[in-house]
Predict the 3D structure of the following.
Amino acid sequence: MPATVHVGLGYDIVHEHANCDGAAVGAASYRDFLIFAHGVQNLEGGVVLSFGSAVMAPEVYLKALSMARNVARQQGREVSHFTTAVFDLMPMSGDFHREPPKTEAAYYFRPRKTMLIRTVADGGVSYYFEGDHRATLPALWRAVEGTR
């Protein structure tokens, strides 16, 4: 999967710079979204990892997955059996595979709602890893290296 950048206008400090070209930023972000969506078409049997993005990444992923699933259905394929893992600092109480009530703030935590519940509901598996990335990323690296 290539590395892609998904810009939300007004999110980043570069938008304040006098030389910022909004049209170029938008065009590059759109191109990267299409690259990402194309990669998601091959997600069946694969893995998606999300590191500490509360809003942008889950929403970009949700839209790309929706596009990929539509294309797959047209080709007689499916994109539904894959694994998602979210790495974040947010404490997660209870069963993170179920949506909490709308009265709880956790209901609006996009990684939970989107990546851990909705997108894997028809055949996928999801995991949540709570902790500081200084600990969780090296632990993931060691686990992956240990399987080689």
